[in-house]
Task: structure prediction
Amino acid sequence: MVIADLHVHTTASDGRLTVPELPAAARAAGVEVVAVTDHDRLHPTLDAPVTTYDGVTVIRGIELQVETATGHVDLLGYSVRETSGLRAELDRIQTDRIDRARRMTALVEDRLDVDLDVSFEPGVGRPHIARAVDESEADCDYAGTFDRFIGDAGPCYVSRDVPGVERGIDLLVDASAVVSLAHPFRYDDPAAALDLAADLDAVERYYPYGRPVDETRLDEVIETNGLLTTGGSDAHDRRLGRAGLAAPEYAHIASRLPDAQG
Result:
C-alpha cells in the first residue's frame, strides 16, 4: 500500500494541484506523505523542508534537470534547504525557462496564426504552451502541439540551458537530506543514468513507467551502492498514489528528514 508519494508537481511548475489542495488529494488516494517536486523550482509557499498540512506530511523537494554526456537526466532532491548556491542557479534556470517559453510561443503562434495566452513567469514550460494551444481557436490539441511543434525534434522546439551533472549533484547534495535519480528507465540510455547512482543517496524504484523496466538490474544497483529507494506518481494532475513507497520503505527516508513543522 502506497503511503508516500514522493514525486508530485503543482501549479508552481506544470502541475494542476495547489498546495492547499494537496491534503484532500492525498486523503482521496490514502496517501500520508507528499513530496512537492516541481521542475527546477522550490515551491514558493513551502517555507520549511518538511511541513504538516491538515494532517498530511509535505516534503519540500525539487526535480532538477542536468546535462550528462548521454543527454538530460532528472534528479530529485528531498527536504531541500534554500542555500545561496542553489537559489542563484534556480534563478538563472527560471530566467532561461521564461526566455525559452517566449521564443517557443512566438514560433507556435506564427505557425498556427493565433495569439496564445501564456503567462511568462517562473515555472513556465512546454505544457503551458500546449494547454494554451488546446484552449485557443487553433485546430490542434495538447498532444498534437507536442507531436507537431514543440516535441524534442519539433520545428518550434527551443533547447534549455541546464546545469552540468556534477554541478547539479553538488548543489542538491549540499541543500537536500536525500538526493535520488528520477525514473531511470525513462531515458534513452538507462545504463548510463544508473551509473550516476553511486554519487547519490537513492534511486526512484517505483514509478508508473508504462514501459518495460529491468527490475533486476535496478535492484542490483540499489544493493551494490547501498541506496535508499524512492517512488512517486509524477503527478501532473490531481490524482496521487499511482506509485510510491509503502510504510517500511518510507521509514528509511523519514529517518533522514527533519521533524515536520506544523
